[in-house]
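Project outcomes to date are best conveyed with an example. Our students and postdoctoral researchers have been running inverse folding experiments weekly, and each run begins with a structure described purely in tokens. The record below, which covers 134 residues, was selected by the lab manager from last quarter's runs and is presented without edits.
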């Protein structure tokens, strides 16, 4: 898969469970943070969009866990995006650094609600155009 954005992060102690590995819910935080940073890298603020009546919301999320991360591990979260009618699908993988071992594979389907109505978002269409690979 050809990724268009990546973000490096590090596991913090409090993100781990009693087994000493990252709690499964924290992976969702990692990939959400990656999507928000991706938007910021394109010049778009998630908060500003909300103020303008545009809300991107998660409609579906699938995650496959491959290798656990532990406290202090560094990792890279990678993102690719595809459009399917009025939905944007984000393919997001996390890899442990430095060995690039696959940690999770995820697919996040988002939709846009504009002033309370589900629909296409010309703002996202324009911004994501250079990043979408058919």
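After processing, the design step wrote out the following sequence:
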């Amino acid at each position: 898969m050809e990724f268009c954005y990546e973000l490096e992060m590090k596991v913090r102690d409090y993100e781990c469970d009693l087994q000493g590995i990252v709690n499964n819910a924290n992976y969702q935080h990692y990939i959400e943070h990656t999507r928000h940073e991706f938007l910021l890298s394109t010049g778009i603020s998630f908060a500003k969009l909300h103020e303008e009546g545009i809300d991107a919301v998660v409609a579906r999320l699938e995650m496959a866990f491959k290798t656990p991360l532990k406290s202090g591990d560094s990792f890279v979260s990678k993102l690719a995006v595809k459009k399917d009618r009025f939905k944007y699908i984000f393919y997001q993988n996390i890899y442990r650094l430095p060995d690039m071992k696959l940690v999770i594979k995820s697919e996040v389907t988002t939709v846009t609600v504009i002033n309370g109505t589900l629909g296409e978002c010309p703002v996202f269409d324009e911004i994501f155009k250079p990043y979408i690979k058919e």
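The mean pLDDT is 95. Residues 26 and 69 are 11 Å apart (CA to CA). The training component of this project remains on track.
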